Amino acid sequence: MIRLENVSVQFDQRHALADIDLTLTEKRIGVVGANGSGKSTFVRLLNGLQTASSGRVMVDDLDAAKDGRKLRRHVGFVFQNPDNQIVYPVVEEDLAFGLKSLKLPKEEVTRRIDEILARYDLTDFKAHPSHLLSGGQKQLLAISGVLVMEPRYIIFDEPTTLLDLRNRNRVKRAIDGLDQTVITVTHDLDLIADYDRVLVFENGNVVIDDTPANAVPKYREMMA
Amino acid sequence: MIAGLYIDGTSAVHRATAGIKILAMVALGTGVFLIPDWPVAAAVLATVIVLYPVSGFGLRVLWAQIKPMIWLLAVFFAVQLWLHDWQAGLLVVTRVAAIVLFAALVTLTTKTSAMLDSLERAMQPLRPIGVNPQKVSLAISMVLRFIPVIATVASEIRDAQRARGLDKSILAMVVPLIIRTLKMADDVADAIDARSFDPD
Fold first, then answer.
1. pLDDT tens digits, one per residue of B66-85
2. Which residues of A touch B115 (CB under 8 A)?
3. Which residues pair with residue B66 across a beta bridge?
4. Partners of A101 in the β-ladder
5. By C-alpha distance, which of A97, A23, A115, A17 is closest to A60?
6. In chain A, fewer beta carbons within 10 Å around the N or the C end?
7. Are the C-beta atoms of residues A146 and A73 closer than 8 Å to each other?
C-alpha cells in the first residue's frame, strides 16, 4: 500500500504538488495530466527520487524520507527515454548493474538475467551492444533492468512516448503482463483504459480520482 | 565504435580472466620495447597473429584491427628508414603492430564488465586515499556507453541545423549539444539513483 499524507513539493516559490492526501491499493494506477501538472513529481516521490517539502510518503512500511535506498529497491522506475536509463555498453552487463548492489551469488545473477532475457525475447541479444538495439528493444531492456531487481512496485514515466505503434504495443503487453503493482504516467490514454484507477493532475492537485471509464472522458473534456 | 568491440566466444582466450589478459598486455607492451632485433619482434607479432584464429577470429577481424593503423605504420617505417635503416623501420613497425593487435584482441575477447571488475579489484588499495573503485568503474562504463548516444544526438542536431541552413555555424551545433548532454546527464543521474547504485 502507498500512502501520501498531506504531501507538498515546492520548487522555489512554486507548488509542484499541493497537499496531496492519497492511499493507493490498486494493482494498476494511471496518472495523467498536462505537462507541468505535477504528475512526474508525484511518481518521483514514490521512488525517493524527489523528497517532499512537507508531509509523509509511505510505501508499505518504508518511509521515503528515511529509507531512500531500500525504497528504490522496492519501487522500480522506468523512464521515458531508455537511452538515459541503460548505463552499460552490453545488454547483459546493463542487467547486472543494479544486481551488483544486492550482492547476490553469481548463479542467481545469471539465473535472473537469463530468465528476463527469455521473457522478452532478448536472449539472442545478451552479448549485444545496447546502443544497437531498436527503440522497442531498448525500452524492454530498461524494463528488464528494473524487473531483475524484483521490485514490489513499478513506475512507468511515459514509457511509450518515443515508440512507434508496434513497439508501443510490445511495451504495453509487457506492462500488462507484470505481476507487480504498476503506476503509469502517460499521455497515451489507451494504455491505461483497463486500469483500476486513474488520477488526473492539474496545477499540483489531483482533480479527478476515478475509474478509467469515468476519469478519461472527464479528462478529455478538461483538455478540449 | 568502442562500445561494440567485444565479440562473444568460448575460446581459451575468451575464458582467460580479464586480469591475466590486462597483465599480459602490460607485459607485452613493456617487453616488446626491450627487444633489440626485428626478427624477434616479428616472431612476437606472429604469435599475436596466431592468437586470432585460436580465439575464433578470421582474417577479416584481424584486418579490421590493423587497417586504421596502416598509414601510421607506413609513416613510422619511412621515418626510421630515413633516419636509420630498413631494419630499424621493421623493428618499430613490428613492435607497434604487436601491441595494437594484442590490445585489440584483449578488447575483442573481454567483456567491459569483466575488465571493469578487474580494474575495481586493482584499485581497492587506493580506497584509503579517497578513490572509490565502483565510481571510477561506473564512470568508465558510462563513457563507453554514451559515446554512441552522444554521437547520435550530435547527428540529430547537425540534421536539424542543416534543415535551418545553419550547417556552417559551429555555435548552432555546439550549444544545443552541450545543453542536451547536460540534460541527459541529469536524467542519467536520476536513472542510476533509481536503479539502486550503491558505491559503498
1. 988 899 999 999 999 999 99
2. none
3. none
4. none
5. A23
6. C
7. no
Give the span between the Cα atoms of B41 and B164, in whole angstroms: 55
Decide the pairing of beta strands A2-11 and A153-157. Answer: unpaired
Contacts of B190 in chain A (CB under 8 A): 49, 79
Rg (CA), chain B: 21
Closest CA to B57 of B96, B6, B22: B6
* Bridge partners for A209 per DSSP: A199
Q: Which residues pair with A57 in a beta bridge?
A: A4
Question: What is the Cα–Cα distance from A94 to A91, expressed in whole angstroms?
Answer: 5
Q: Does B10 touch chain A (CB under 8 A)?
A: no
Q: Which of A115-129, A197-211, B93-107, B159-173 has the lowest mean pLDDT?
A: B159-173
CB A185 within 8 A of CB A175: no
Q: Where do the domains of chain B lie?
A: 1-110, 112-200
Report the pLDDT value the prediction gives residue B2, as an integer from 0 to 100.
Answer: 44
- 3-state DSSP assignment of residue A12: coil
Instruction: Quote the cell numbers at residue B57.
Output: 577470429
Residue-averaged pLDDT of chain B: 88
A-proximal residues of B, 25-54, CB under 8 Å? none
Q: What would the pLDDT profile of A165-221 be if each residue is shown by its tens digit?
A: 988 998 899 999 999 999 999 999 999 999 999 999 999 999 999 999 999 999 999
The identity of residue B112, as a single letter, is T
Return the bridge partners of A4, or none: A22, A57
Residues 6+ apart with CB under 8 A from A65: A51, A52, A56, A57
Q: Which residues contact A78 (CB under 8 A, 6 or more apart)?
A: A85, A139, A142, A143, A146, A154, A155, A156, A157, A159
Place of cell 518511509: A63
C-alpha grid cell, residue B25 = 598486455
Which residues, including other chains, have CB under 8 Å from residue B159's CB and lie 6 or more apart? none
